[in-house]
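Appendix B, record 7
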Amino acid sequence: MSSAHPTRRTFVTGTAALAAAAALTPAAAGAAHAESAAGQPADGGRPLTVPGLQQWTPGRGSYRFGADSRIVLDRADRARLAPTAALFADDLHTLTGRRVPVVTGHARSGDLYLRLHDDKNPATRDEGYTLASGAVMNLSAARVTGVFRGTRTLLQLLHQSPVVAGGTAVDWPLKPYRGLMVDNGRKYFTPQWLKATVRNMAYMQLNTLHLHLTDSEGFRIESSSHPEVVSKDGFLTKREIKDLIAFAQQHHIEIIPEIDVPGHMTQVLSVHPELGLPGSKTTLDLSKDAVYAFVRDLLEEYLPLFPGRYWMLGGDEADSVKNNASYIAYAKAHYLPAGGDPAKVTGNDCVFGFLNWANDIVRRHGKTMRMWNDGLNGITTAVVKPSNTINVDFWTSRGADPTWLVDQGFTVMNGGSPPTYYAAGGGWDYRKDTPWTYENWQVDAFLNWGPDGETPSPYRTVTGAANQGTSMHIWCDVGDPETEEHVSEYTTRLTHIVAQAGWGSPKPAPDYPSFVRALQQVGDAPGGRATADLAMGRPVRATSGPNPAAAVDDDPSTGWSSGPATGGRTALTVDLGSQVALDRAAVQWGARFATAYRLEVSRDGRRWYGLAATGAGKGGTTPYRKATTPQDLIDFDPRAVGIEEFERLTGVGRYVRLVVETASDAQGVDVMSLRLFGAPRR
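Structure tokens (predicted):
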């Protein structure tokens, strides 16, 4: 979508213990780790997972993963569960370094037993599962998808410890649509990044990957019908698409493709200006028959390529045509329904006729069409009524209202902007306040903008099956400034928040700082994108000032105040615990900030090498304050609260220090957060 769309790398603390336990006998592993069952709070509450478990009943004893642990399948279920079991075994190998055999037969102590069972409850039937933790870990579900979801929970638990507290979990999602959208139109994301992202999505129980394949700045999918429109600076081939679809299916994730029409067509119109709306650089002219032939070519080419249930047509942010004479004439000639009053036809009716035309093609291919809600602007007074078989992704009040749509029989999805948006490279004001979102936002709450289009009104609420769920959106308003890794690191937490909202279970932590610590504990998916802040919670020392640990607690409401510089400089040093290849860093300043500073890295804490430096530090115009209202959420701007970032770093070391050379205030600086990203050096 356009710029009008307001859009880490882990040290796995549990993995080392788990790998060590895998070399022990089950009894020895239990003795070594009985005191630290995975995710089990001291008060006997539910084990820690993200999203949280729906239900947990504590039991006696515990499950212990060890050197003799196996994945066991019932003979009757083997054919259906073998692929899931094989993938689970591969993930356990990545997590532990040990090959876990998959066998058929009876489970014994230490085994992971996977099976299918009858379940007529519609809430738990499709994706729900039951985990019974004891001498054997019993995972059962009515569907293969449910078993797969349960294996993701087990990976999170075993990431934390080889010991899982005894008890029974019954878990299921609140919403059937829990997604991630990637703007692959304006920024080319590689197949490797997309696959790693699929792993991360599955780990947090998301089930839908929406690929926004075209936008004004790019058409990034191979085309045989119109090869001339494909971007030359990067695109996905059909073979890569098929491979990605197969990989996503393995992880029980459905891919929804989007070829965005009639707006956001600058790339196409650069080749076919004759298809454009006069006076527009972005919009196809829906009063031209040639446009319908072009769109039909694309639909007929791509619909068979994607086996999923949905096709996303887009429909957003096209140029206004309400009073366009050509559109009005075309609507009267082609779309006027029996009994319709031609005097009331507007250009919007031509757009709605086009939507119905495209919807008929999509439905003939056995799929359901989706679109953005602003493409339905003017629907309440339309002569040509769009079919309510179209599913509507709500993102803005500049279009059809979600409650009105539901009253008319439409199905909606909550992709509100904000809080589910991140915009890479341009829309800084759309990197919203994640603490507010975690602590306040609910999946049934649709953001409602007031009459001025600027001030938020109270949320509109859409509950029940008419609200399919929600999705996190990664937009690339400017594609180049941010690397794929940067995008992963800076969207992970918000994606987890959206995943938690869609799952609809009790939250795993009462507030955002606790939630961040929970994310560190459950870690990243085996083989997925590493996204963790390496500095968080690590030992830290400072040359002056109290409480330097507040700079690495990843809570921007707390921080380290240095006091006056000591010996001409102030420094903050973090011990990462082992050698790391660093590639990104971010500093968030408080009211007092460094005007010149540098980051240095060291392998031994004695010899230091430059990592990054600036003599133009600007801090922020206002110190961070926690958002408490929807208006606070909208007003949040990382630039204003002093976030300064460094990309494409190349240093290797265990220790990193922030050295302040000059400051805005003689009394020192306030470092609210120092975040470091990279990968363990092996």
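Remarks on this record: The mean pLDDT is 88. The chain has three domains: 13-171, 177-522, 540-680.
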